[in-house]
Specification:
Strand content: under 5%
CATH superfamily: lambda repressor-like DNA-binding domains
Number of helices: 5
Number of strands: 0
Helix content: over 70%
Largest sheet: none
CATH topology: 434 Repressor (Amino-terminal Domain)
Length: 80
């Protein structure tokens, strides 16, 4: 099972790799900054619609974000 925390960590890493602040990314994605912050902190799981908005704000295809999440999950399972 994919945890909200894992998804948040991946999204945080992608955002930081693009040199964006939470405020900028949430604005580009059309999301409330506090809601977006909760996603990054693993307090909320993004809906598929929200995940698409975040991907587009990152200038990435949604499948690239999902692939990054899958990679992080595989790494986590390999450690356990």
């Amino acid at each position: 099972m994919v945890s909200a925390e894992l998804v948040g960590n991946v999204i945080t890493g992608l955002r930081k790799s693009k040199g964006m602040s939470q405020e900028v990314l949430s604005g580009l994605a059309g999301l409330d900054r506090t809601h977006y912050s909760k996603i990054e902190r693993g307090l909320r799981s993004p809906t598929i619609d929200t995940l698409f908005k975040i991907a587009h704000a990152l200038d990435m295809a949604p499948h690239e974000v999902v692939t990054a999440i899958e990679r992080a999950l595989a790494e986590k399972l390999a450690v356990v």
